[in-house]
């Protein structure tokens, strides 16, 4: 376990299911519903990934992020925002739950079945992961690359501890912004600009005056 700036990076628990236990997407959805207290994902090999709960500051940061993106998406009208509780089944078979995701409405409309009651069977157009103090940077970077390889057009990894934004795009090396004041959605999230100081502040403290 690595220590970073007084925090502990914690690798998620990996549960091997093959051979012996095979779950299709519907079975996995039911399993997650039966274990709502756990944060569960699945990798492309079919292994279950059990992640620790996030810290209070990370939860507050997630809330602010979801609100900012939802306000933009409502004005934009071209897609749907999902929070960290949504599961997406990627083309490689993995099931992931980014902290924030945006999917174009036309892609949702083209699905054979309405995914309102199950996992969404596609990779979002945009994904965001907010690093919690216990999150492994290595794991998060690999997850961001997986999103891009499976069709995401833009990905942001926000690291409040380093005040960095890692930007992922198809066919390009990740770009790292150090202590930026804002991040722009460019051609994917047209007209969206995220102010970062409120996000950094929310993850650092909850008590007033602290």
Radius of gyration: 17 Å
Q: What is the assigned CATH homologous superfamily? A: tt1808, chain A
CATH class placement: Alpha Beta
Rough outline:
globular
Task: Compose a concise summary of this entry.
This protein has helices at residues 25-34, 56-76, 105-109, 137-149, 197-204; strands spanning 3-4, 7-8, 13-15, 39-42, 48-51, 79-82, 88-89, 95-96, 100-104, 126-130, 154-159, 164-168, 175-178, 182-184, 193-195. It is an alpha+beta fold. The strands form 5 sheets. Strands 6-9-10-11-12-13 form a 6-stranded mixed sheet, sandwiched between helices.
Key features?
210 residues, tt1808, chain A, 26% strand, 6-stranded mixed beta sheet, alpha+beta, single chain, 3-stranded antiparallel beta sheet
Describe the protein in words.
It is built from five helices and 15 strands. With 210 residues, it is of the alpha+beta class. The protein has a single domain (53-204), classed as tt1808, chain A, CATH 3.90.1570. α2 runs antiparallel to α5 (197-204). Mean pLDDT is 90; it is low at 1-6.
Task: List the SSEs and their pairings.
Blueprint: E1 3-4, E2 7-8, E3 13-15, H1 25-34, E4 39-42, E5 48-51, H2 56-76, E6 79-82, E7 88-89, E8 95-96, E9 100-104, H3 105-109, E10 126-130, H4 137-149, E11 154-159, E12 164-168, E13 175-178, E14 182-184, E15 193-195, H5 197-204
Parallel strand pairs: 10-11
Antiparallel strand pairs: 1-2, 3-5, 4-5, 6-9, 7-8, 9-10, 11-12, 12-13, 14-15
């Amino acid at each position: 376990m690595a220590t970073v700036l007084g925090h502990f990076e914690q690798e998620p628990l990996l549960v091997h299911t093959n051979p012996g236990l095979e779950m299709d997407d519907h079975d996995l959805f039911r399993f997650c519903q039966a274990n709502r207290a756990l944060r569960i994902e699945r990798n492309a090999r079919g292994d279950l990934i059990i992640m620790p709960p996030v810290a209070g500051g990370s939860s507050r940061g997630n809330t602010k992020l979801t609100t900012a993106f939802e306000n933009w998406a409502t004005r934009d009208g071209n897609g749907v925002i999902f929070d960290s509780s949504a599961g997406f089944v990627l083309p490689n078979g993995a099931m992931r739950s980014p902290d924030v995701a945006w999917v174009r409405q036309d892609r949702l409309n083209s699905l054979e079945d309405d995914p309102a009651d199950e996992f969404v069977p596609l990779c979002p157009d945009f994904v965001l992961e907010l690093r919690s103090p216990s999150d492994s940077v290595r794991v998060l970077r690999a997850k961001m690359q997986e999103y891009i390889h499976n069709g995401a057009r833009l990905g942001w990894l926000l690291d409040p501890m380093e005040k960095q934004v890692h930007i992922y795009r198809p066919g390009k090396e990740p770009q790292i912004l150090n202590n930026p004041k804002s991040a722009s959605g460019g051609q994917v999230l047209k007209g969206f600009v995220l102010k970062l100081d409120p996000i950094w502040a929310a993850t650092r403290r909850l008590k007033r005056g602290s």
